[in-house]
């Protein structure tokens, strides 16, 4: 079937100028080139009016605020780049961070970029197994972490990682190296297409994937943060995403610093009362958060919210999971502001669909394609993914439901999955990038999220690949086979649940069930299953693959007939 061409009417006007305008507002390296860290810090540090402004305000475990000015952050990250030189790190080498939002994380992340190396962030709540897989997958040669995380997460797998040449431990050791480092090391001259960021993500099948982005992505970070979040230099900005994930880097570090705002970060885990205190005491003006957190605040009721002065807040925005209309209504009533939804993915590198900060919110809808982005809804095949026939997809116009596709050409689109060209190619068809999300578009061009078209699980905003969890469980000597799905949860959207078939002769006892849960927690950390059911067998396709959709339908008590339209449990 021939593909229709999408008219420019579905993207907003002035689309073609958006990226060029944002690029003009960036500095570029002296003498040519583009480097994210230069735009984020050194540009401001060179400006006498901006140098002394607070770039970071980080609340430590006791709640004490540690501040770093743009000038200090620039100096320290330059020294970090020089430390990497001494370790033999070259342009393009992958350097991973396994850190929470501590000052060292920001220094390391920006230093890695200044050195022309590739920043590969790891979530610090991962267990040893996901960390091992990702370090191997990314060919990471240097890791920056804390002594505590090293002992807990890295030491057990260190010998299995011969390619990991150095581990830099933050604390006195790193401080000593920084003090002795070259304070005048120039930023490595990188071009927009040079690799900068390696973000790990998950698919339905196979190992995790490593999406590679270039320094040019900063153009999209700046444009989208300004036009959709409404981010301004005078903002006190709090992005609650962990810096071990793509949101925490792109919109938690890069975008706000490029704009020249003050970034607030909290190193302590989520707590309702404390989050309100942070909003209140730090006088946060722009808050980029996630539906899970908002649902947890909502569950606590309005009283706690009313104890705090939230009058500094100008905008609340959300990302990463479906934003229930009820949460938007609650926020409006209780916090005095609606929640502006934004949609994007690791691969897109920046926000693609959104309700901009200056637009009226429609509860339950994400919004529209952002300026500069052309989106389409594609007809689905029986497997739920876009139907591709003879290399062609079918674009549906007007009000429609189908797989969301985006026309490549924006500056933060991933360059590909590192070392996996086949999986990269599989993301594109007929001139479109296929997102794997099913959406519904209203007659007037507003998009709503319907479901994932594949089996990945979103739990508390984190993407979990069922294959990774199944593979880990199947390494346990008692396990013959495992099938992993997301089951509905009112707070986290979905929880990871495993269905496990035991090896012949192994008794399905409660002790074994508990042992398997503990094993999962130890090996996988944050992505471990929260529930495990021991079952006699699993449903399979004719080719022998576990039918996760059928498991999910059974779990939800849904009819097992048409699985292509099975909506997300969330
Ligand atoms: O299914 C969509 C969901 O999160 C996926 C992307 O996850 P990840 O690659 O981890 O990216 C994190 C950066 C956002 C999407 O394919 N998702 C993201 N935003 C929304 C969403 N689902 C519903 N509503 C959203 N606003």
Bound molecules: adenosine-5'-monophosphate-propyl ester
Instruction: Indicate the proportion of strand residues.
Output: 15-25%
How are the strands of the biggest sheet laid out side by side?
2-1-10-9-11-12-13-14-15
Return residue spans where pLDDT drops below 50 for at least 5 consecutive residues.
Answer: 1-11, 564-570
For the record, the count of structural domains works out to: 3
Please summarize what this structure is.
With 570 residues, the protein is an alpha/beta fold.
What does this 3D model show about the protein?
Helix 2 crosses helix 3 and helix 8 (217-229) packs across helix 9 (246-259). The protein is 31% helix and 24% strand. A nine-stranded mixed beta sheet has the order 2-1-10-9-11-12-13-14-15. Strands 16, 17, 18, 20, 21 and 22 form a six-stranded antiparallel beta sheet that branches. The protein is α/β, with parallel strands linked by helices and 570 residues long. The protein has three domains: 8-374, ANL, N-terminal domain (Rossmann fold, 3-Layer(aba) Sandwich), CATH 3.40.50.12780; 375-450, Roll (Luciferase, domain 3), CATH 2.30.38; 456-565, ANL, C-terminal domain (GMP Synthetase, Chain A, domain 3, 2-Layer Sandwich), CATH 3.30.300.30. The protein contains 17 helices and 27 strands. The protein is globular and about 70 Å long. The structure holds adenosine-5'-monophosphate-propyl ester. Adenosine-5'-monophosphate-propyl ester (PRX) is lined by residues 201, 246-247, 319-323, 341-346, 366, 435-437, 449, 452, 458, 463. One of its GO terms (molecular function) is ligase activity. InterPro entries: AMP-bd_C, AMP-bd_C_sf, AMP-binding_CS, AMP-dep_synth/lig_dom, ANL_N_sf. Residues 52-417 form the AMP-dependent synthetase/ligase domain. Residues 468-545 form the AMP-binding enzyme C-terminal domain. Pfam families: AMP-binding, AMP-binding_C.
């Amino acid at each position: 079937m021939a593909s229709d061409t999408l008219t420019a009417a579905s993207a907003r006007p002035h689309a073609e100028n958006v990226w060029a305008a944002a690029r003009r507002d960036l500095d570029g390296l002296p003498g040519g080139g583009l480097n994210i860290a230069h735009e984020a810090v050194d540009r401001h540090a060179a400006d006498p009016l901006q140098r002394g402004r607070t770039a970071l305000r980080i609340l430590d475990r006791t709640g004490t605020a540690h501040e770093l000015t743009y000038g200090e952050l620039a100096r320290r990250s330059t020294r970090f780049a020089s430390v990497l030189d001494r370790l033999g790190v070259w342009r393009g080498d992958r350097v991973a961070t396994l850190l929470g939002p501590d000052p060292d994380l920001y220094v390391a992340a920006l230093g890695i970029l200044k050195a022309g190396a590739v920043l590969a962030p790891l979530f610090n709540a991962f267990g040893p197994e996901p960390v091992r897989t990702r370090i191997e997958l990314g060919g990471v040669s240097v890791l920056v972490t804390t002594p505590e995380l090293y002992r807990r997460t890295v030491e057990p797998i260190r010998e299995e990682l011969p390619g990991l040449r150095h581990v830099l431990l933050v604390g006195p050791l790193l401080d000593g190296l920084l003090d002795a480092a070259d304070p005048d090391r120039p930023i490595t001259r990188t071009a927009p297409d040079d690799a900068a960021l390696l973000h790990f993500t998950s698919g339905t099948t196979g190992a995790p994937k490593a999406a590679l982005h270039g320094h040019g992505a900063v153009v999209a970070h700046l444009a989208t943060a300004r036009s959709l979040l409404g981010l301004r230099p005078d903002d006190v900005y709090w992005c609650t995403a962990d810096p071990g994930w793509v949101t925490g880097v792109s919109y938690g570090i890069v975008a706000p610093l490029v704009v020249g705002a003050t970034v607030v970060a909290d190193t302590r885990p989520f707590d309702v009362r404390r989050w309100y205190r942070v909003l209140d005491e730090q006088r946060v003006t722009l808050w980029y958060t996630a539906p899970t957190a908002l649902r947890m605040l909502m569950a606590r009721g309005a009283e706690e919210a009313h104890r705090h002065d939230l009058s500094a807040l100008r905008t609340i925005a959300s990302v990463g999971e479906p934003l229930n209309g009820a949460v938007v209504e609650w926020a409006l009533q209780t916090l005095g502001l609606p929640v502006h939804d934004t949609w994007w993915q690791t691969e897109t590198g920046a926000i693609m669909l959104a309700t901009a900060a200056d637009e009226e919110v429609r509860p339950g809808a994400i919004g529209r394609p952002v300026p500069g982005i052309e989106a389409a809804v594609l007809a689905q095949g029986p497997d739920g993914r876009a139907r591709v026939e003879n290399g062609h997809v079918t674009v549906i116009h007007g009000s429609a439901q189908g797989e969301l596709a985006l026309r490549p050409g924006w500056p933060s689109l991933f360059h590909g999955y590192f070392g996996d060209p086949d999986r990269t190619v599989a993301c594109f068809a007929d001139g479109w990038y296929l997102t794997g999300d099913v959406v519904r578009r209203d007659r007037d061009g507003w998009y709503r999220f319907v479901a994932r078209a594949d089996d990945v699980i979103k739990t508390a905003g984190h993407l979990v690949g069922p294959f990774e969890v199944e593979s880990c469980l199947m390494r346990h000597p008692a396990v013959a086979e495992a099938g992993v799905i997301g089951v509905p949860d009112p707070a986290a959207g979905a929880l990871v649940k495993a269905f496990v078939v035991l090896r012949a002769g192994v008794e399905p006892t409660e002790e074994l069930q508990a042992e398997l849960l503990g094993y999962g927690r130890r090996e996988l950390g944050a992505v471990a299953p929260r529930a495990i059911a021991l079952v006699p067998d699993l449903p399979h396709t004719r080719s022998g693959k576990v039918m996760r959709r059928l498991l999910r339908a059974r779990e939800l008590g849904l009819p097992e007939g048409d699985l292509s339209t099975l909506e997300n449990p969330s």
